[in-house]
Amino acid sequence: MPMIKLTIDGKIVQAAQDAMILEAARLADIKIPTLCYLKDIQAISVCRICVVEVEGADTLLAACSTPVEEGMVVYTQSPKARRSRRTTMELILSDHPYRCPVCVRDKHCELQDLVKELDLDMYHTVYARPDFPFNGAMSSHAVDDSSDLLVFDPAKCVLCQRCVAVCREESVNALVMKKKSFESVIGPIDAAKLGDSRCISCGRCVLACPTGALTTHDEIKNKLMTTRRRFQ
Amino acid sequence: MKSGKSDTEITQLEANTVKVLDTVTSCMDFSLKESCGKCVPCRIGSKRVSEIIGRIKGGDGNPEDIKILERLGSYMKATSLCPHGLATGNTLLMMISSFRDEFEHQINSNQI
């Protein structure tokens, strides 16, 4: 495999020809925050958290799905990229209810970790800020607890589609993204409710979910599944 | 202000205000409707833009809103996944830079 050279944050990095910027950066110990990325399973660049600035590109590029090129110059912590990540997170939080203290995934939530990593504070700098610019309507879909195992709360869902990717990888193909625009919601492909669908209750989507959107009826299972080792 | 000229001017300005804001509203509502909902900038960004413009049009706008719209516009232009979000941001920024006085007029005319 021929190797190529690129510069990330002033550091000259060697990477395989078909590698993505994110993989090259991780090999060189440069950290880029991610949300929807699952190594070897999903790199669809929908969360826009991993955006980086590349010299010569007009827009910011998602590190998880942009292939490396010879002589590429990448800035992962440029003001433009950092500002963009923070705005993305603020927009996600503007459509995410503040129920952290009573959420099953509190303290083990990837969204909370990411908020901390981006120098934001879930409560003090977003929800309680009087001049928070993105206050507005939140999506309203009913909680689905018809399945024997799963409970799905769409209000907490950030639509990263990680559950869809692992469901596809498991060859079950039960979950898809339904509707469009602000009304988008994750749901079973062949029925209105999870209980009537082809879902086999394997629980992989619960492990993959970064927030408390997908949980189980059983409290002990919840504790085991939400405090597990991280996917990424 | 009873003179014919002033009345005409004022009427004309009001007509223009309504027209520009109507155009922006329909553009942004269309963008929101056509968004596929995959990426955050387009899904939530378009929704917030529509809400803020609706607020300005309904008479509840405040001067900070133009800054927020500009911030969202340039954010969507730079970060969106596909050219739909880029075009939405671009349209919004162009509308604001060309008709800034109309936006300000609409906001100020409703300030107490």
Architecture overview:
The complex is a heterodimer of chains A (232) and B (112). With 232 residues, chain A is of the alpha+beta class. Chain A has two domains: 3-89, Ubiquitin-like (UB roll), CATH 3.10.20.740; 96-230, Alpha-Beta Plaits (2-Layer Sandwich). Chain A has helices at 21-27, 79-94, 110-117, 122-127, 162-169, 204-208, 219-226; strands spanning 3-8, 11-16, 51-54, 61-62, 73-75, 150-152, 175-178, 185-188, 214-216. Chain A is globular. The mean pLDDT of chain A is 90. Chain A starts with a strand and ends in a 6-residue tail after the last helix. Helix content of chain A is 25%, strand content 15%. In chain A, the strands form three sheets. Chain A has a five-stranded mixed β-sheet with strand order 2-1-5-3-4, sandwiched between helices. Chain B is mostly helical. Chain B is built from five helices and no strands. In chain B, helix 2 runs antiparallel to helix 3 and helix 3 (64-79) runs antiparallel to helix 4. At the A-B interface, helix 2 of A face helix 1, helix 2 and helix 3 of B.
Helix percentage of chain A: 25-40%
What's the pLDDT, averaged over the residues of chain A? Answer: 90
The count of DSSP E runs of length 2 or more, i.e. the number of strands of chain B, is 0
Instruction: Indicate the structural class of chain A.
Output: alpha+beta
In short:
The complex is a heterodimer of chains A (232) and B (112). Chain A is 25% helix and 15% strand. Chain A contains seven helices and nine strands, in the order ββαβββαααβαββαβα.
Layout of SSEs?
The complex is a heterodimer of chains A (232) and B (112).
Chain A: E1 3-8, E2 11-16, H1 21-27, E3 51-54, E4 61-62, E5 73-75, H2 79-94, H3 110-117, H4 122-127, E6 150-152, H5 162-169, E7 175-178, E8 185-188, H6 204-208, E9 214-216, H7 219-226
Parallel strand pairs in A: 1-5
Antiparallel strand pairs in A: 1-2, 3-4, 3-5, 6-9, 7-8
Chain B: H1 4-34, H2 40-57, H3 64-79, H4 83-98, H5 100-108
